[in-house]
Amino acid sequence: MAYHSFLLEPISCHAWNKDRTQIALCPNNHEVHIYRRDGAKWSKAHELKEHNGQVTGIDWAPESNRLVTCGTDRNAYVWTLKGNVWKPTLVILRINRAARCVKWSPKENKFAVGSGSRLISICYFEQENDWWVCKHIKKPIRSTVLSLDWHPNNVLLAAGSCDFKCRIFSAYIKEVEERPSPTPWGSKMPFGELMFESSSSCGWVHSICFSASGARVAWVSHDSTVCLADANRRMAVASLCTETLPLLAVTFITENSLVAAGHDCYPMLFTYEESQGALVFGGKLDVPKQSSQRGLTARERFQNLDKKASSDTANAAPDTLHKNSISQISVLAGGKAKCSQFCTTGMDGGMSIWDVKSLESALKDLKIK
Amino acid sequence: MARSTLSSRFRRLDIDAYDENRFVEEPEEAAAAEPDAGPEVEALLRHPLRRTGDALQAFHAAIRNSPVNTKNQAMKEQAQGTMLKVLTSFKSSEIEQAVNSLDRNGIDLLMKYIYKGFEKPTENSSAILLQWHEKALAVGGLGSIVRVLTARKTV
């Protein structure tokens, strides 16, 4: 597992370019920094300074090589690379609260922004006016939209929000695309149509993800649960109450397996058993460091007793790779169908790249279906 | 410059209350009157030749009949009182067995009762509740405590 510590501050959000040689991340301020891989090292290539508030979402379109960023200043910018400089274009989102997350659609002709104004802005480029225009999806969202993910058909959009529900909307824009064909989630898809709404769990939905085929959607919420809805089983929802702290990020790595991570600082595997319609915990995906068992000196023992009231000789620091909560997971190689590498960033300012094959060989009981 | 000369009364105004799209809590459907587990549980506890099995049955009965879906405060108070009696009637050695006999939902419900019991400590209740807490935590993990904090339907 490669771990690189970029900053001492949390990494608010990150995005990779198409060939995974560059990473754009927000170092918990108003800027976006782009780092280029230099062998085993990372060097800063660009600094994008346009936002007036913290940048809360970044997405990098692989084919058209455009970046979209959104922030707490209620704006979004689309960045295009001209020569060696990134030029921003302002997108007016018409929201009166902070933007929280942004995602390019699979065909990269539109993007969706979730915000605290309890709505989703779907933005597309209008050729006649040479301008990005947005349409709103409002009903029936009752609170901040925290996470978004697009269905592979470029029309359906899953949104997780703070009103404890996960919803799937149609974001069909007739100006930029043709009518979509029917999917297991429904056949009539006018703009803003609600295709699916989960029954209330009890926690804010932090992260949501469609599977590679789009027939399944999984989400994690703040009451320490992982849920999955399967369109092929009449939208039945399987949920699992975990024994860990709440999870903040989730992604599919095969059609049946999920990797999720959160406040426990390590990624974990979940498997969906289609025959039983149930989610099962697959295992902790962290490779523990072999800590040397050295005896404590008398002075250290007394210090332990004084500070922590414990004469315990065990190391109190967490033995996970990340030293603080993991806030985002992204798939690097293999897509969501057969992921071979994924990347996590967290509040410890570090980024680590996980290799699925080495995890499978290192942790013997792991079974990735 | 101690005080601003302009009125700051506008700060007392709740601007979001005037928003036409404001969130309105959905009215809860009136729940049917929950069957009161009180008498059944009392009977099991009062049996003079009380064996371990009876305490376990009383425990399960109390868990089964929890008033999670009602908003009736009185009923919840009563259920809490009954539950506390059941929990304190267990011997320390029996607690682990009782906890292991519960399923995932039962553990979450037990945790809710334990924390509710912590809110109003009596003479001996905290000690017993802490023992229950330790055993329930071993099975339910930190997730069960998170679910106590985030639950919208309280016990």
UniProtKB/TrEMBL annotation, chain A:
Q: Which PROSITE patterns match?
A: WD_REPEATS_2 (PS50082), WD_REPEATS_REGION (PS50294)
Q: Please tell me whether the keyword Cell membrane is annotated for this protein.
A: no
Keywords attached to this entry: Actin-binding, Cytoplasm, Cytoskeleton, Nucleus, Repeat, WD repeat
Q: Where in the cell is it found?
A: Cytoplasm, Cytoskeleton; Nucleus
Principal place where this protein is found?
cytoplasm
Instruction: Name a GO molecular-function annotation.
Output: actin filament binding
Q: Where are the WD repeats?
A: 48-82
Tell me the SUPFAM superfamilies matching this sequence. Answer: WD40 repeat-like
GO BP of this protein = Arp2/3 complex-mediated actin nucleation
Q: What cellular component GO annotations does this protein have?
A: Arp2/3 protein complex; nucleus
Role summary: Component of the Arp2/3 complex, a multiprotein complex that mediates actin polymerization upon stimulation by nucleation-promoting factor (NPF). The Arp2/3 complex mediates the formation of branched actin networks in the cytoplasm, providing the force for cell motility. In addition to its role in the cytoplasmic cytoskeleton, the Arp2/3 complex also promotes actin polymerization in the nucleus, thereby regulating gene transcription and repair of damaged DNA. Functions as component of the Arp2/3 complex which is involved in regulation of actin polymerization and together with an activating nucleation-promoting factor (NPF) mediates the formation of branched actin networks.
- What family name appears in the similarity comment? Belongs to the WD repeat ARPC1 family.
- Protein name per the record: Actin-related protein 2/3 complex subunit
State the organism of origin. Dromaius novaehollandiae (Emu)
